Amino acid sequence: MTPRFFRPFRALAAALLAFFPVTAFAADESAPGCIPPVAQGLPHLTLAAATPKPGPEQVAITYVGHSTFLIESPAGVRAATDYNDHVRPSVTPDIATMNKAHSTHYSANPDPGIRHVLAGWGRGGGEARHDVTLDDMRVRNVPTNIRDYGGATDYGGNSIFVFEAAGLCVAHLGHLHHTLSPERLLRMGKIDVLLVPVDGSWTLDLDGTVEVVEAIGAPIVIPMHFFGQATLNRFLDRMSAGHDIVREASPTIIVSRTTMPPRPTVRVLPGR
């Protein structure tokens, strides 16, 4: 059943998805770097450019707002995910990833300066396949399904994007609508930082969200896609038994392999 909030966007979304161009890339059949050996309607917001920079062997992760993050590698490669026309960083990323659940997760007019624009859905009903390396950052996807506007299943309509840099794997779940099969978990590999939607309704319900977080087992979990503190706190309450909860003062954190927390931690970033 279509959530009432999204119904006005149905015709617009269909038209935009039919006509705006995205850049497609063939998948690299080599094993992803973090795969274990066993198996290879929002206001327009912008992020101020002055954010902390990662040093050697570090990755900077900045929460722009809603479901959008900016991820920066030691060499200065910037990736924005979910890149869209409503909430985006003020800097032009080198790589932009998008999902198509609705217009706050994709752009009809991506900045022409972006070198790689990666759509999380396939063309003509197929699944998207991306495996792109730019300098010291690698970006690949694991397709998932979404509910379409009529309540049916849109197979391959969403992607989990995995960003590899500085020996770390950062996964953005996109607009995830279902729990993950063992096959998808294996394709994701060992994830160090998980960016997870916690709204509990438009994506997964709360039980499903917790199941996915626990199945992935990332040392750092960063919530996104919540609508008010009550929704966020409901997720934090559920996670507090097995995770430390840290509320950050800055929307940017610097992470590295050597600073992974000894106990799984939910780090709440203030969106701008």
Could you explain how this protein is built, in words?
- This protein has 272 residues and is α/β, with parallel strands linked by helices.
- The protein is globular, with a radius of gyration of 17 Å.
- It starts with 9 loop residues before the first helix and ends with a strand.
- The chain has a single domain, classed as Metallo-beta-lactamase, Chain A (4-Layer Sandwich).
- It has 4 helices and 16 strands.
- It has helices at 10-19, 182-188, 206-216, 229-239; strands spanning 45-47, 58-65, 68-72, 78-81, 87-89, 95-98, 116-119, 131-134, 137-147, 153-165, 168-172, 193-197, 220-224, 244-247, 252-256, 265-268.
- The strands form 3 sheets. Strands 8-9-10-11-12-13-16-14 form an 8-stranded mixed sheet. A 6-stranded mixed sheet has the order 7-6-4-3-2-15, with no helix packed on it. A two-stranded parallel ribbon has the order 1-5.
Number of domains: 1
Distance between the termini: 32 Å
Class by helix and strand content? alpha/beta
Strand line-up of the largest beta sheet: 8-9-10-11-12-13-16-14
Strand content: 25-35%
Number of helices, where a helix is a run of at least 4 consecutive DSSP H or I residues: 4
Low-confidence parts: 1-33, 35-49
Summarize model confidence as the mean pLDDT.
Answer: 82
What would the principal axes of the Cα set say about the shape?
Answer: globular
- CATH topology term: Metallo-beta-lactamase, Chain A
SS elements, strand count? 16
Along the chain, the helix and strand elements come as HEEEEEEEEEEEHEHEHEEE
CATH homology superfamily: Ribonuclease Z/Hydroxyacylglutathione hydrolase-like
Radius of gyration computed on alpha carbons: 17 Å
Major sheet description: 8 strands, mixed
Query: What helical percentage do the residues reach?
Result: 10-25%
Looking at the overall shape, the CATH architecture is 4-Layer Sandwich
The CATH C-level class name: Alpha Beta
